[in-house]
Amino acid sequence: MVLWFILVAKAQPPSPVKLFVAVLTRYPALVMQVSSILEAPYGPLDLSSQGIPFTATHYYEAEMGTHLQRFFLSFSRLIPPDQIVEIKAFTSEVEDRFRQDGKRQINLDPGYLDYHKVVLASWKFGGQKIYLPGGVYADITLYYYKRQFLSFEWSFPDFKLGLYNDFLLKMRDLYKAERQAVDKFAAY
């Protein structure tokens, strides 16, 4: 006698993800101010990067000037992935607080990583982006394979260069440790 089992997929809660904010500015002192603002709702930082020269594109220079640097802020508190929608709205409000003569002095790109990928939140449509509520799009920017993050054809030029891989790998290691602690605690 052969027994056939039909497995029915059921909705599962998403695994928590690691929140980060990619910061672009030519004013490094603003990064500390912004990190203090972001820590209030999202918890303390567990990792932050030094400024990395942003030379892959001139896209932001007309608005933000030259000599831009990219910084990363990683938060210790894991979040549900759908929280990125409200985080994108909040970081846009924070950007607006620092405008001078209508121009941004700082660009904040919230995102998250999990075991498999790096996702950035965007207001802009793109063929590869997934629409979320509130006009936000999830942009899968990098994927993890054999101890490295790899880009897609559509990935942002600076992410394609691999300049941030060391930082992202450290952040992923923190994420793994945090997930193991959460999963171990949940087992009790």
What value does the average pLDDT take?
93
**Tally of helical runs:** 5
Shape: globular
Oligomer type: single chain
Number of strands: 9
The helix fraction, in percent, is 25-40%
What features would you describe in this structure?
The protein has 188 residues and is of the alpha+beta class. The protein has one domain. Helix content is 32%, strand content 28%. It is built from five helices and nine strands. It has helices spanning 28-42, 61-64, 84-97, 157-160, 165-187; strands spanning 17-25, 45-48, 52-53, 69-79, 106-113, 117-122, 130-131, 137-144, 149-151. Strands 1, 2, 3, 4, 5, 6, 7, 8 and 9 form a nine-stranded antiparallel beta sheet that branches. The model has no long low-confidence stretch (mean pLDDT 93).
What can be said about this structure in brief?
This protein is α+β, with helices and mostly antiparallel strands.
Layout: helices, strands, pairs:
Layout: E1 17-25, H1 28-42, E2 45-48, E3 52-53, H2 61-64, E4 69-79, H3 84-97, E5 106-113, E6 117-122, E7 130-131, E8 137-144, E9 149-151, H4 157-160, H5 165-187
Antiparallel strand pairs: 1-4, 1-5, 2-4, 3-4, 5-6, 6-8, 7-8, 8-9
What are the main properties of this structure?
5 helices; 9-stranded antiparallel beta sheet
